[in-house]
Structure formats: structure tokens, C-alpha cells
Design a protein that fits this description.
Layout (H helix, E strand, L loop, with lengths): L2 H24 L2 H8 L3 H7 L3 H24 L5 H17 L8 H9 L4 H27 L9 H22 L2 H16 L3
Helix pairs in contact: 1-2, 1-4, 1-6, 4-5, 4-7, 5-7, 5-8, 5-9, 6-7, 7-8, 8-9
């Protein structure tokens, strides 16, 4: 890895939590320089603009999330067990042990919906990829006779995603972890009822 690549990675690693907490509009160049200890010239010597830093920060946050989910899923033998991994991993977003600021998909989708088309596109691709992954898990569960044969994989995927992201939004907005627990209890019951 070249010195320039190391510097870019350092900038992304240090600013990813800030973009996740404050969003694109809320993150200033001063936030970036404060987090990295680098000058504005160093930042712009490695990135053309704040947009590039934000896009790279989203990728970094998303990849960390996906890596944790895949690692936890590899320890599960069943499709239902793998689906339940989402509950436990996202629980860590709620309590702040994984990522400062919560779920990068939800944060970016909300922040960039009407203001930043490139970030919105990244968030959309992340949701569609997540949906595709859940559909594949449900199809595996159907093939293994863990999940009812007449189940609609797309409907299940959208329900799981909506419950997780909606649960995060409600619990963070109300500042009540109990709301998350109630919604995730419903999601666990839903997943367990699939078979």
C-alpha cells in the first residue's frame, strides 16, 4: 500500500463515524481536519472534495457492517438462525457498540434522500443488496424445508428490513431502547413463524 493509499484509508477511517453521526450536510471540513489532525490541503490532496470523502466513508461503514453480519452468519447452520443474526447485529447499533451514530444505511438514506443523489444511490444499492441476501436465505430455508414452501421471499425480506430500520428509527427518535426490544421481539416471532 502506498503512502497516499494509507493516508486516504486513514482519512476515511477517522471520518466515517462522523459522517454516520452528523450526516453529509452536518459534517464540515473542520470536523474532518479535527478528526484526522490533517490540514485542509492534505484532505484535498487525497480527495477531490467532501463528496468523495463522504462516499468513501459510507462504503467503509457499510463494509464493516456487512463483514460483521457475514461472520456471525457463518456460525449459524439454519436459514432462520442466519435471519436472526440481523436482530443481534443491529442490537449492537442501537447500544452503540458497533458504530457511532447507528445504522449507516438508515442514516445515509434519510440524510441524502433529497440532497445528495450519489449518497442516495449508495444507500439504495445497499438496501437492494440486503434484500437480495435475505431473499437468498429464505429460498435456502424453503429448499431445506425450514421455511414454508408457500412463503414469499421478497415479502419476507422487505418485512425484515422494514422492521429493523423502523425499529432503529423509532427507538432512536423516542430514545427508548424498550421500543427496539418490543419491535425485535415481534421480528423474532415473525422469523420463527416462517417454518
Amino acid at each position: 500500500m502506498t503512502k497516499a493509499e494509507k493516508t486516504r484509508n486513514f482519512i476515511v477511517e477517522k471520518t466515517a463515524p462522523i459522517f454516520n453521526m452528523k450526516g453529509y450536510a452536518g459534517t464540515s471540513l473542520n470536523d474532518i481536519t479535527a478528526a484526522t489532525g490533517l490540514t485542509k490541503g492534505s484532505i484535498y490532496g487525497n480527495f477531490a472534495n467532501k463528496d468523495e470523502v463522504a462516499l468513501a466513508a459510507f462504503d467503509y461503514n457499510l463494509n464493516n457492517n456487512v463483514s460483521r453480519i457475514e461472520a456471525a452468519m457463518s456460525a449459524q447452520a439454519t436459514a432462520k438462525g442466519k435471519l436472526l443474526v440481523y436482530v443481534s447485529i443491529y442490537q449492537n447499533f442501537i447500544v452503540g457498540t458497533i458504530s457511532k451514530g447507528g445504522c449507516p444505511i438508515l442514516n445515509t438514506a434519510t440524510d441524502a434522500d433529497d440532497t445528495h443523489p450519489a449518497l442516495r444511490e449508495k444507500a439504495l444499492k445497499a438496501v437492494l443488496s440486503w434484500k437480495k441476501r435475505i431473499i437468498k436465505l429464505v429460498e435456502e430455508g424453503i429448499a431445506n424445508k425450514e421455511i414454508k414452501a408457500d412463503s414469499n421471499p421478497e415479502q419476507i425480506a422487505l418485512t425484515v428490513i422494514a422492521m429493523i430500520e423502523g425499529g432503529i428509527m423509532i427507538s432512536r427518535l423516542t430514545n427508548k431502547l424498550a421500543h427496539w426490544d418490543l419491535i425485535m421481539d415481534s421480528l423474532k416471532k415473525y422469523i420463527n413463524s416462517l417454518g
